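Issue: ligand-bound run for adenosine monophosphate - logging full I/O for the record.

Environment: standard queue, default settings, no custom constraints.

Inputs:
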Amino acid sequence: EFKALGLSDLMLQKVAEIGYVTPSEIQKGIIPVLLGGSDAIGKAKTGSGKTAAFLLPVLQRIVLGELKKVLIISPTRELSMQIYDELLLFSVNGIKGVLLVGGKDMKKQVQSLATEYNFIIATTGRLMDHLQRGNLPLNDIELVILDEADRLLDMGFLDETREIMDKVVNKKQTALFSA
Ligand code: AMP
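Outputs:
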């Protein structure tokens, strides 16, 4: 049951609303670890429920005031858009994310960075673009999630990912997912 994983009533209500009944394997493994504030590595493919495995505990910690800013990096705009959509699905207490992916208007992304947000959901490429233009700081990011880290490497984003991670100077927690 989701309840046994340590999720709050608010998050359990959200899970029930969406219609998830049984947590998947990756959710059973990852949710308690991320709730506890530890680093995590998850072996999970698309379809395993990995997105909810990190979004649910992170949203709960934001609601509790334990976390403010989270960066979620993925190799492709499709994956980042899926993560963003799932965040909209789960969103509680008006918690917002900013989506930074290629192929979309840079100016609009800059405008959304001027609003209140808790999540940056980005591809490495577009995030680097914004960083080079000085559009956002990363020193307020406390948690970094690297999704499909194996593909990040396969697609040649190791240097960019390192550069991004070096800028997250106040990082307290990291979670990495790989197929
Ligand atoms: P993901 O692996 O995160 O891309 O998730 C794959 C799909 O499974 C998404 O459409 C989710 O909405 C759905 N999903 C995630 N967790 C559960 C669950 N515990 N029960 C049923 N469906 C789920």
